[in-house]
Design goal:
Largest interface: B-C, 39 and 38 residues
Strand content of chain C: under 5%
CATH architecture of chain B: Orthogonal Bundle
Largest sheet of chain C: 2 strands, antiparallel
Largest sheet of chain B: 2 strands, antiparallel
Strand order of the largest sheet of chain B: 1-2
Number of helices of chain B: 11
Strand content of chain B: under 5%
Shape of chain B: globular
Oligomer: heterotrimer
CATH topology of chain B: ABC transporter involved in vitamin B12 uptake, BtuC
Number of domains of chain B: 1
Chains: A alpha/beta (233), B mainly alpha (290), C mainly alpha (340)
Structural class of chain B: mainly alpha
Shape of chain C: globular
Helix content of chain C: over 70%
Order of helices and strands of chain C: HHHHHHHEHHHHEHHHHHH
Structural class of chain C: mainly alpha
Chain lengths: 233, 290, 340
């Protein structure tokens, strides 16, 4: 579904991604892991139009998307969340959801939005300002907001970071539900438990390069991966 | 075009550029440490110019001597502004800080207008009209002296930032507020110091400028914008960038005045500003720390 | 709970503003004191200008400090068309605002590449450049001498009146139109996009919002009303000068009522104008023309205080009190019940 061919991203002297080629099949959940600074967020930025590769191509369903602008890529069916959890703080939860809804009748969108909020467990809070929510609730909101446009491909940047185990479980269940509906997810994570429990495959990045790829179990036993995390290289 | 006219302009441009550099360095310090765009920068300088003027007119104190007074006073004013005004809105939206300095700008300009009226004033010392002749070019004594003093002050500031502990603390705070405070740096104090020093820079610059530049309540705005241009040119937050940016703007202005009529001199500055902002907002000369 | 149209009218939320509106409309019929009307016109004028600025700055978060330029373009366009082609200023107003919008779209597409304070800076640069152009292009604009609008006496066709009442009503009409547009936008999907841009541009983009296009849209609506106000000014004051109508100080004046009153709200600019405009007028009448700048000291101080103590504007604080007040009025209790 998403394919990158030899992409490289340089910021001046810093090489964030180096000759990265990978392929994400449709209808799967793929984990993207690696130490801090290994290029995971850069990958998401490239895939969603927030950045352009210095070299290489990105293809979505066979069509090139590198260099396109974020809102265009969103229209193609690709959605993302951010590491810093970007909800619209001074707008209500419902308003947050409605921004993301396609141009439908307002009443239809509102029904759908309420439904989604209920599905993720945020019902009753629709008219609260998003900034008043707890951190975990904001992360849930940011996640479910991306689903309003019914994307086929969702990239999630550390979706469970800093939230309670209870909310984490809720998120993981929803990830599985989405996959069962045929959607494709890429999850950037540090938490190996999360990766093991939902991802079919995982890709490990280090210094901008792919150093391992396989099932979570295989990854955990891979010596190069262990070196990367422990060796501090 | 006679080469002499061009050379004369380049010399004058460089000389005033030195003072621009001092102003810009002050602005970039304030931005670098606190991420604040100080719209009141030029108007604080205007206050220093008036201070110098009155000390000269009423007490006969030579402008260069009054540096001893204007620099500390402007330092104090800057520190007070930071302590009582800006520090209150640090956690707010970026817009709040912008509007705050705009408010200070309005107050400063119009207080000056109220007390000293809109008439242009100038300081005429014995040496105001002296000039040194270097070949075909005349170098005005006040311009040259002010240039030299400005350069000395900028170098002193550089040494302060690079070599002293306080200076290093300031640079550390500019890089990373949280880490610095974890390492024992009193961030709020550092901010006060930074704004104070930044304002002291324009205090000095104002005094130096007043030896050959006219003084009026509205003179500050053009310098604020000039400083923005220099700082953006050199990279926001970069000391050397702001320094060379100031020199470049001084030169560009003078060259512009040669080829275009004087009224269009400001237009040149603005066009350059727009161009730089659009083409390379991260600066042409130094590194940006945005 | 079904509400009929009558029930809605009995709701204080609806009738209080309506009564105020009627009072405002009736005022010129009650008093013909020229000075009082001028005073009110000024309040409405700055309310309009700030409301227009607010559409861009308050809703999409783009703080333009160059709006005076677009005001000037509107004012000069209609006036020059009037002087050279005898075109009715009403038509000139339309052409002037369309032209001003077109200019703003060109300038905006360059400025919107920058964000935050850099956007503000480049708007200042463009506006100052335009002011200098106007100042030096004497042949077109009268330059430093200024431009006098030809006197036509009491002539509705030529948008000039001897009394103040017609001006008052025209201005009220324009202000109401701008408020209606603001209200409609705020409650539409476009309004949601505007606010999303203000809150977080990157997040908005990731959700499919073309932030560039919507910023330009907000700018266009904002500049339209700003330029219309420009023509009004030209026809009311009958004299234009680049340093009055296109200056940075004027751009700041345009922004102040919205900042003080509350950006991103509909009533903020009006409340702000009600607070600020009397100050400048009182100072001017007490101290006289030579102390023209004094009111700016007060405005600047109010700005500083507002930013520190009322960062989201005065209106937000007042809204709660206003809500409580509405609850005490007839029909208020039903309203409270319906809400809970």
């Amino acid at each position: 579904m998403l394919e990158t061919r030899n992409i490289t991203k340089e910021y001046g002297h810093i090489v964030a991604l180096s000759d990265l080629s990978l392929s994400i099949p449709a209808g799967t959940i793929v984990g993207l892991i690696g130490p801090n600074g290994s290029g995971k967020t850069t990958f998401i930025d490239l895939a969603t139009g927030f950045s352009k590769p210095s070299q290489g191509e990105l293809l979505f369903k066979g069509v090139r998307i590198d260099g396109r602008r974020p809102h265009e890529i969103s229209r193609l069916g690709i959605a993302r969340t951010f590491q810093e959890t970007r909800v619209f703080k001074k707008m209500t939860l419902l308003e947050n959801m409605l921004v993301a809804s396609p141009a439908l009748q307002r009443s239809q969108s509102m029904e759908r939005a309420r439904g989604q909020l209920k599905w993720i467990g945020l019902s009753g809070l629709e008219d609260r300002q998003a900034g008043a929510l707890s951190y975990g609730q904001q992360k849930l909101l940011e996640f479910v907001r991306t689903l309003m446009s019914d994307p086929t491909f969702v990239l999630l940047d550390e979706p469970t970071a800093g939230i309670s185990p209870f909310l984490t479980q809720r998120m993981l269940e929803s990830f599985r539900a989405l996959r069962d509906k045929g959607k494709t997810l890429v999850i950037v994570e540090h938490n190996m438990d999360v990766i093991s429990s939902v991802c079919e495959r995982a890709v490990v990045l280090h210094h901008g390069q792919k150093i391992a790829e396989g099932s979570p179990a295989e990854i955990q036993q891979d010596s190069t991966v262990q070196d990367a995390y422990l060796g501090g290289g | 075009m006679e080469p002499t006219v061009l050379t004369q302009s380049l010399v004058n441009g460089l000389l005033i550029g030195g003072i621009y550099a001092l102003i810009s360095v002050g602005l970039t310090l304030i931005f670098g440490v606190m991420r604040i765009i100080n719209f009141a920068h030029g108007d604080l300088m205007m206050l220093a110019m008036y201070g110098t003027y009155w000390m000269f007119t009423l007490y006969g104190i030579d402008p260069y001597l009054s540096l001893i007074v204007t620099v500390p006073i402007l330092f104090v004013i800057g520190s007070l502004i930071q302590k009582f005004l800006v520090n209150q809105v640090l956690e707010g939206a970026d817009a709040s800080q912008l509007f705050l300095t705009l408010g200070v700008m309005l107050v400063a300009q119009n207080v000056a207008l109220l007390f000293w009226k809109a008439d242009y004033r100038a300081i005429r010392t014995d040496y105001s009209v002296y000039a040194i002749r270097l070949g075909e070019v005349f170098v005005s004594v006040p311009r040259l002296t002010s240039f030299v003093v400005a350069i000395i002050l900028t170098c002193l500031l550089y040494v302060f930032l690079a070599r002293t502990r306080t200076g290093r603390a300031m640079r550390a705070t500019a890089q990373d507020r949280e880490v610095s405070s974890l390492m024992g740096v009193n961030v709020r104090q550092t901010y006060i110091l930074a704004f104070g020093i930044g304002t002291a820079c324009v205090g000095a610059a104002g005094t130096l400028l007043s030896t050959f530049y006219y003084i009026s309540p509205t003179v500050g705005t053009a310098f604020t914008l000039m400083a923005f241009l220099a700082v953006v040119l050199g990279g926001m937050g970069s000391f050397t960038g702001a320094f060379f940016g100031g020199l470049v703007v001084g030169l560009a202005e003078s060259i512009g005045a040669v080829y275009f009529a004087t009224q269009y001199k400001e237009l040149v500055t603005f066009s350059l500003f727009i161009l730089v902002l659009l083409v390379r907002p991260s600066g042409l000369l130094g590194k940006s720390r945005m | 709970m079904a509400t009929t149209a009558l029930t809605r009218l009995l709701n204080p939320e609806a009738y209080v503003p309506s009564i105020l509106l009627l009072l405002l409309a009736a005022l010129p019929l009650v008093t013909s004191n020229s000075y009082v009307l001028h005073f009110l016109i000024l309040i409405l004028f700055y309310a309009l200008l700030s409301a227009a600025w607010n559409i861009l700055a308050g809703f999409t978060g783009q703080f333009s400090l160059g709006h005076a330029a677009f005001f000037g373009i509107g004012a000069y366009t209609s006036t020059l068309l009037f002087i050279y082609y005898g075109m009715s200023p009403w038509l000139g107003m339309l052409i002037g605002s369309v032209f001003s919008v077109a200019c703003s779209l060109i300038i905006g597409s360059l400025c919107f590449r920058l964000r935050g304070p850099f956007f503000s800076m480049i708007t200042i640069a463009f506006a100052e450049a335009l002011r200098l152009l106007a100042l030096n292009w004497g042949g077109l604009t009268g330059g430093a001498v200024g431009l006098l609008v030809p006197l036509m006496g009491d002539s509705a066709v030529n948008f000039q009146f001897l009394g103040r009442q017609p001006y008052y009503y025209v201005l009220m009409g324009i202000l109401l139109a701008s408020l209606l547009v603001t209200y409609a936008v705020r409650n539409s999907q476009t309004g949601l996009y505007f606010m999303a841009i203000r809150e977080d541009e990157n997040a908005a983009q990731s959700l499919g919002v073309n932030i560039f296009r919507y910023k330009l849209l907000a700018l266009a609506i904002s500049v339209f009303f700003t330029a219309v106000a420009g023509t009004f000014y030209a026809q009311y004051i009958l004299f234009l000068h680049p340093d009055s109508v296109m200056s940075l100080n004027f751009s700041i004046e345009i922004a102040l009522p919205a900042i003080i009153g509350g950006m991103g709200t509909i009533w903020g600019p009006i409340v702000g104008s009600v607070i600020l405009t009397p100050v400048s007028e009182l100072i001017r009448s007490i101290l006289g023309g030579s102390y023209a700048g004094v009111y700016l000291i007060i405005h600047g101080s109010i700005l500083i205080l507002a930013v520190i103590y009322f960062p989201s504007g005065v209106t937000n604080r007042l809204t709660k009190h206003y809500g409580a007040f509405l609850g005490t009025l007839p029909g208020g209790r039903e309203r409270e019940r319906a809400r809970n």
